[in-house]
User: Fold these one by one.
Assistant:
Number 1:
Amino acid sequence: MKKIVASKLPPQRVKDPKSLQTQSEYLGRVTSVFIALFIVVLGILYFSSETGQVVTTVNVSNTTIVSCNIPLISGVNHISFNCISNFQNRSEVFEKTDTSVITAMYEYRNKQADQWRVYAPNLPSYVVQDLKFLSRLKGYVIIVESGQNTLVDYDGFLSSTSSIPVFTGNNLVGYPSLIVDSLPEALTTINDTYERVRYFNGSQYIEFNATNNASQNTLKNLTPTQGYWITMPSADSWQVQSNRTN
């Protein structure tokens, strides 16, 4: 390694008071300019909103304290989390859960090249686990070892409203609500676009088909903490209320 000789180093430059004063004045002018620009921007926004030329919307959602107590039974479970945000660390949600009995957990992503994200806790540590974050808008498939069971126990918050994007084809979605809501009323905001909604109850799929008579449908309600497959002929947005009183 080449040594740096002290005598070869550039001499330290001492700033004179006049230079410091000049810098202080410059910073003061820059600060004043930024403040002036900020005031101008506020004025433009106010004027635009008054004249109707620009519409600015701020959505404020109330939140409710919610506890997720979701039993996971042997076999295939379709669940969702109404107690988490749209981007919640998986390890936080499963901190109190015995994940040793979980074979795999899947998230389905419509319109993605890699449609399945997976978390498989029993695989070796060098295996990439790409399902690191969870969302209340999503549904999840969790497979538990035969003869075993465990419990998801997590306390969090639920927004009063959730907007869930649904795309053409199949969508595995959550149900971020506190109420058991009957069908088809629960899907009012996508009544004109969805074809059917399905839920796997542990042994078989039960279904509500929009083209059937009510008596032909085996799925009657949407229930909190369950995950559902919704089939769409076109893209839309499903608006879910956490409670009817909101």
Note: Helices lie at 17-51, 90-93.
Number 2:
Amino acid sequence: MGQLSSLEVAIIICFGSAIGDPMLGFDVPVLHGIVAVTTITLLQVGMERFINRNKKVEEFMEGTADKIVDNGIIMLDQLHNDNISHEDLFRSLRSNNVKHLGQIDKAFFETSGQISVIFKTDDQTKPGLTVIPPEQIPAESILQAPESIKKTGIYCCTNCGNSRHYKNAEQVKKCSRCSCSNWVEAQI
């Protein structure tokens, strides 16, 4: 369903209704169903041509791609608006061969329901939040504010992927972007 536009969903419902009535009702001739299906098909082809020629109508009917990762940072508001969980996002990123968010320049939630990724070049890649499932991250690797850092390095917020350099014995602070308290060492 996520891969269908609103017009395609409406057409499917119309087809079902047009075909169902003659199939189930003895008082409705099959010819009426054929005429209805033909009419719906012609309307659908005409609407698709109209929509593809008019950019504003196409955006209204089919929507636009939403940026959900920008420069290795998860756009939490957009993730919430698109009703995508962190695990859904990470699952899609893993299927696109992403190991960590630092590899991503931009990721988009497409109108088809897919997530497309634009990678950074190798020399632009920076350390980032791992996309492995959270249950696979050892509990002792997750630091919570106000814990102290045991090893100097770059750490990422587990919620939005924001990265920050921490020094040994420095206290972990809440994320400046999302106020999350959990941090994990960045992947390279």
Note: Helices lie at 6-24, 30-53, 55-62, 76-81, 86-95.
Number 3:
Amino acid sequence: MAEAFRAEWGRVVAYLIRVTGDWDLAEECAQDAFAKALERWPHDGVPTSPAAWLRTTARNRAIDSMRRAATGRAKLREAAILRFPDDPDDADDRGIPDDRLRLIFTCCHPALPVEAQVALTLRTLVGLSTTEIARAFLVPTETMAKRLVRAKHKIRDAAIPYRVPPAHQLPERTGAVLAVLYALFNEGYSATSGAALVREGLCAEAIRLGRLLVELMPDEPEALGLLSLMVSHEARRPARLDAAGDLVILENQDRALWDAAAIAEAARILETAIRLERPGPYQVMAAIATCHGSASTATATDWHEIAVLYERLSEMIPSPVVTLNRAVAVAMAEGPAAGLSLVEEIERSGELSDYYLLPATRADLLRRLGRGTQAVAAYRRALELAQTDAERRYLTKRLEQTALIR
């Protein structure tokens, strides 16, 4: 059931938004369809086509709801004869055969703030809870809930069309669309909460949509850069967890499990982007991923080059998260004391105070410097903030090991 939700939620909601034009109704009917599946499938068995079952159930629920809400003969007749296509992936006049891509571009209309664009897409396309999205943005749940409501009202009140825009309007939405796909992939690659660290369906969906976007915009280097980045990370995913589902850090991963063909494909995509001579942050991140993917062993990793690339990235998109990643690279290239200095700068700024990777990174650097007592305290703080079971198990193991040798 969980797999069906991950695979089909966005498809069902995007379809219903297209045919009803009502975002809240679409989510409500999709939720109702999944609730019925949860109730019936354990007894009746999973249908031959779960996607078709979910779509039909949600569609019928939408029709019933619209009929109940209709007042007057004209509205009743309109609701009764409303056309709900059986194929949710009818191509539009631009030949884009995917409601989900239409949904992304609609959510990413320039009339909406960028953060609202990304958040709304994660809510409607992926089905993330408001709390999960709030964690991803490092803001309170109530703040995120208000943003989502305002974004939906803006789309309704401004009558923003549900479509992939014409070519001349694509550039103004490119940045937000790329941010959405990156956020979608990140939620799959490292979930914000829950028992599972990795949600493979979300990673696959982000890459699939990324390929569609590159097909739509073949000369957009940042679209190519993002696709390269996602493919490169996905190539290493099989080694991130062990047989027990526990996190395996990069230096300890079995590189024989990495998908060499995918790593090579990611490198080729990045080369295509670089030849367009319009550098951007996704290309830099893809270059960092390529450095990792091309290293045959952990010790062969070019950490100096990675540190330089993170410095370049921080110039493009100043961010405490980028600075934290740079601190790790600097620690590997120049020693843990140099990395710890950067981490302490972030701590003094007060940024990332609720981000578990900040104390986790500090703990690791303190451990490597032989400052066990301080490392234990930092690991405990990281444990308080970690949201997934796999992360908590990893930190608990590190904490226990450090406590024994301090």
Note: Confidence is low (pLDDT under 50) at residues 79-97.
